[in-house]
């Protein structure tokens, strides 16, 4: 009887180790201070539109028995929240249905591991109301956690967008 219980316990432990875990992560917008960009002011009004049509879970890192998934629609909402915070602090107003708009969409995310850090690289596609389209890529690493790397990558990709002179001109135009 004792041997059977031990075997059953060992089998259960082995199955748990082989099964792995899946993690679904949505970036936080307040993990890091925003990176420095050229300062600008504008009193324009703009709409920020989530242009990512897919809310499917996408595998962006497999690490041992752990799989990490992203919902790009939710990630785009976080990129919009960071964008809104930064442009409103520079005098802009964000409203629905403004004549001036920007469509944002997180397109990719890829997690990688190094010897001492974990990294996340993400891309953000932006289209302005005047037809300007660009895709920005940013990467961040963290020795602490994948979550901090993701938070940093999303913040940095928004910073890359707000460093684009064409975006700034569009935001400042009347």
Summarize the structure.
The protein has 174 residues and is an alpha/beta fold. It has 4 helices and 8 strands.
Mind telling me the C-alpha Rg?
21 Å
Q: Mean pLDDT, rounded to whole units?
A: 92
Second CATH tier, the architecture: 3-Layer(aba) Sandwich
Q: Assign the CATH class.
A: Alpha Beta
Subunit organisation of the chains: single chain
CATH fold type: Rossmann fold
> Tally the helices: what do you get?
4
Total strand segments: 8
Largest sheet: 5 strands, mixed
Total discrete domains: 1
Distance between the termini: 82 Å
How do the strands and helices of this protein lay out in sequence?
Blueprint: H1 2-19, E1 21-24, E2 45-50, E3 57-63, E4 66-71, H2 72-88, E5 93-94, E6 101-113, E7 118-128, E8 133-142, H3 146-161, H4 165-172
Parallel strand pairs: 1-4, 2-5, 2-6
Antiparallel strand pairs: 3-4, 6-7, 7-8
């Amino acid at each position: 009887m004792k041997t059977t219980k031990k075997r059953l316990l060992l089998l259960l432990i082995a199955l748990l180790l082989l099964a792995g875990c899946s993690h679904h992560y949505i970036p936080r917008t307040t993990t890091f201070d925003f990176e420095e960009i050229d300062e600008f002011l504008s009193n324009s009004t703009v709409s920020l539109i989530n242009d990512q049509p897919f809310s499917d879970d996408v595998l962006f890192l497999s690490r041992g028995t752990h799989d990490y998934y992203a919902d790009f629609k939710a990630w785009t909402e976080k990129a919009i929240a960071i964008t809104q915070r930064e442009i409103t602090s520079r005098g802009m107003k964000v409203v629905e249905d403004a004549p001036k708009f920007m469509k944002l969409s997180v397109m990719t995310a890829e997690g990688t591991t190094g010897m001492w850090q974990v990294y996340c690289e993400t891309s953000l596609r932006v289209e302005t109301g005047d037809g300007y389209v660009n895709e920005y890529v940013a990467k961040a690493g963290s020795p602490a956690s994948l979550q901090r790397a993701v938070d940093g990558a999303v913040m940095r990709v928004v910073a890359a967008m707000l460093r684009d002179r064409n975006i700034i001109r569009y935001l400042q135009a009347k």
